[in-house]
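Retro notes (design track)

What went well: tokenization of the new backbones is finally stable.
What didn't: we kept losing track of which sequence belonged to which structure.
Fix going forward: every design gets posted as structure first, then sequence, in one message. First example under the new rule, 264 residues:
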């Protein structure tokens, strides 16, 4: 497969890698709840969600392979952690269950907005892949949104924990909409919508849910749209990661690196 002439190839490839990295890293974090979630139902649910996220990562890296020849295994297991382009949100430790739930909800809502926007992309493989991912992400969003509403407006303790989680995760989640490198070229070519527009749509969606859950985050409504009133946690798209990602990638690649490049 070749990138059509007229589309910015390097920015497009960089975006594909970033979206694959988001899914890979969050899938790994969610898998850490297997055997440790508060109840069996959530143990199974987050194990399934982790598997889905890893599958989405494989889909992005498979598209990347068709365009570059680099295999998904190489992308996941042979790159240096500094070369990952995931947002910083997905790499932070799983924390308590409230933090995991809120992070997952923010991520799922962002995925819905972004994948729906790809329906209008000038790059046909993005349109096709978004349809597949949207079908599975619909379950993720339903699950995480339900937990946010029940736990946020539940007991005094559950509300306290969810509020603390929202306060921590909200600035981090703004990094989901950090501009991709050379994003202006992608927007000009009709490949993507501006991240700023996607963030506005996302804020409208999450505020509707957070209000029902009686959870408060630092935003204000101005001229009919929501605007954050905190500094976003940026840097992941350009490789400025925290040490949490270094440790995660080390764990992720440990077994593979015992015999790099060998079939398993």
């Amino acid at each position: 497969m070749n990138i059509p002439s007229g589309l910015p190839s390097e920015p497009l490839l960089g975006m594909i890698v970033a979206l694959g990295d988001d899914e890979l890293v969050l899938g790994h974090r969610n898998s850490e709840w297997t055997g440790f979630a508060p109840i069996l139902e959530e143990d199974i649910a987050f194990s399934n969600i982790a598997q889905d996220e890893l599958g989405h990562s494989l889909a992005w890296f498979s598209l990347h392979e068709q365009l570059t020849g680099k295999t998904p295994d190489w992308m996941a297991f042979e790159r240096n952690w500094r070369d990952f382009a995931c947002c910083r949100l997905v790499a932070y430790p799983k924390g308590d269950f409230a933090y995991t739930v809120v992070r997952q909800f923010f991520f799922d809502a962002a995925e819905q907005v972004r994948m729906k926007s790809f329906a209008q992309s000038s790059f046909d493989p993005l349109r096709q892949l978004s349809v597949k991912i949207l079908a599975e992400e619909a379950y993720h969003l339903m699950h995480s949104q339900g937990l946010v509403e029940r736990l946020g407006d539940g007991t005094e303790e559950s509300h306290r924990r969810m509020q603390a989680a929202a306060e921590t995760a909200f600035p981090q989640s703004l990094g989901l909409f950090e501009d991709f490198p050379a994003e202006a070229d992608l927007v000009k070519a009709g490949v993507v919508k501006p991240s700023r527009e996607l963030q506005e749509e996302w804020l409208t969606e999450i505020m509707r849910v957070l209000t029902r859950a009686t959870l408060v985050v630092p935003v204000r409504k101005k001229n009919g749209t929501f605007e954050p009133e905190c500094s976003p946690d940026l840097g992941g798209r350009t490789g400025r990661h925290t040490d949490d990602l270094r440790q995660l990638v080390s764990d992720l690649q440990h077994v593979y690196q015992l015999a790099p490049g060998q079939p398993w």
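Added context from the reviewer: The beta strands are 219-222, 225-228.
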